[in-house]
Design brief:
Blueprint: E1 2-5, E2 14-17, E3 27-36, H1 39-46, E4 63-70, E5 79-83, E6 94-98, E7 103-104, H2 111-116, H3 119-130, E8 138-141, H4 147-158, E9 163-168, H5 171-179, E10 184-187, H6 194-201, E11 206-211, H7 215-223, E12 225-233, H8 246-251, E13 255-258, H9 266-281, E14 289-293, H10 297-303, E15 311-315
Parallel strand pairs: 8-9, 8-11, 9-10, 11-12, 12-13, 14-15
Antiparallel strand pairs: 1-2, 3-4, 3-6, 3-15, 4-5, 5-7
Bound molecules: NADP nicotinamide-adenine-dinucleotide phosphate.
The site of NADP nicotinamide-adenine-dinucleotide phosphate has 29 residues, from helix 1, helix 3 and helix 4.
Length: 316
């Protein structure tokens, strides 16, 4: 079969003919229809990912939507969302996935949306859960111009947030966030008094911050947190380090909570994914995606770090 292959750490994938995945106990064989490209795929391929990287050469891609070809509890032909196994990824014509983790999809949700609700959507939804969001609270979403952030804005509303602030660098996408439920927007940029802007936009202070960016925006968001406020640390698009003020964290009894989907039990992930799909089918969560033929994997790979503002979806 045809697949994208990482032949060396730090290199872009190249198209190759590789053997089909081997069927095995507990696995389903899937014909891939759409594979999501995520920032984490590039981190893994750098060879410097905190959770490790498969030995090269390997097939990248963490998730996908496909039709079951064989194996497992689902009928052949069933359309499923699946998580790919490390090194035997979804950027290929076929993939082998854990049967127990594959989720059958309803017809009302297209492949691109189903993929965007996976790695990105789950971190948005479960990140809000990790932050213990309660109805009536105020949420600040950093990186609201990205796929995860824009889903988090919509999810916060669905979870009963009273006031949602969307922050990001891209003005056009922030206006979209406003259309999808944000009450206020804050444009990130150099030389801004961000903490004051966050406080003002939130009407005084924030209870939960969804933070896929870290760096300076996260440090400013900490300053805008209310007493007992929580910042959920999900990613580092703006920087790997941030300088936080001890007295702010101590004085207001704040919590900085790390989040990784790798640590979430399968049942909780599946429940959250089903809920996201249900909300998308009902039109309450919308996500942009762009289909890119697998042959153009290198173009997509080079666009991903420059914020494509939509989920790039590889189609084998
Ligand atoms: N912990 C987990 O389990 C988990 C799961 C999924 C994703 N993540 C992480 O979450 C982050 C976002 O993922 P995504 O799928 O939303 O990616 P994405 O769609 O590519 O979005 C990237 C976001 O980062 C922002 N950004 C990039 N550089 C920035 C900078 N220098 N300063 C401020 N903002 C910056 C972009 O803002 P502009 O477009 O406005 O520039 C955009 O909002 C990634 O770091 C990813 O690895 C973590």
């Amino acid at each position: 079969m045809r697949a994208a292959v990482i032949e060396g750490y730090g290199e872009a994938p190249v198209l190759r003919e590789v053997p089909d995945p081997e069927p095995a106990e507990g696995l389903i064989l899937v014909e891939v229809r759409a594979a999501g490209l995520n920032p984490v795929d590039l981190r893994i391929a750098s060879g410097r990912f905190y959770a490790g990287s498969p030995p090269v050469p390997y097939v990248p891609g963490s998730e996908g939507v496909g039709r079951v070809l064989a194996g497992g509890r689902l009928e052949p032909g069933s359309r499923v969302y699946f998580e790919a196994r490390p090194g035997q990824g979804s950027f290929a014509q076929k993939s082998a996935a854990q049967d127990s983790a594959a989720i059958e999809l309803p017809p009302g949700v297209d492949d691109g949306t189903a993929v965007a609700l996976g790695v990105s959507g789950l971190a948005a939804w479960l990140g809000l859960e990790r932050g213990g969001l309660k109805a009536g609270e105020t949420v600040l979403v950093l990186g609201a111009s990205g796929v995860l952030g824009l889903i988090a804005v919509q999810a916060a509303r669905l979870m009963g947030a009273k006031h949602v602030v969307a922050a990001g660098r891209d003005r056009g996408r922030l206006e979209q966030a406003r259309e999808r439920g944000a009450d206020a927007i804050v444009e990130l940029g150099p030389g801004k008094e961000l903490a004051e802007a966050f406080r003002k936009a939130s009407g005084g202070g924030v209870d939960v911050v969804i933070d896929p960016v870290w760096g300076e925006p996260a440090a400013a968001a900490v300053e805008a947190l209310n007493r007992f406020g929580r910042l959920v640390q999900i990613g580092q698009s703006a920087g790997a380090e941030a300088t936080l003020t001890s007295s702010s964290i101590r004085g207001r009894s704040l919590a900085i909570l790390g989040y990784t989907t790798y640590a979430v039990p399968q049942e909780q992930k599946a429940a959250a994914y089903r809920r996201l799909v249900q909300e998308a089918a009902a039109g309450r969560i919308t996500v942009e995606s762009e289909a890119v033929p697998l042959e153009k994997v290198q173009d997509a790979w080079s666009r991903q770090p420059r914020s494509p503002h939509r989920k790039l979806v590889l189609v084998p």
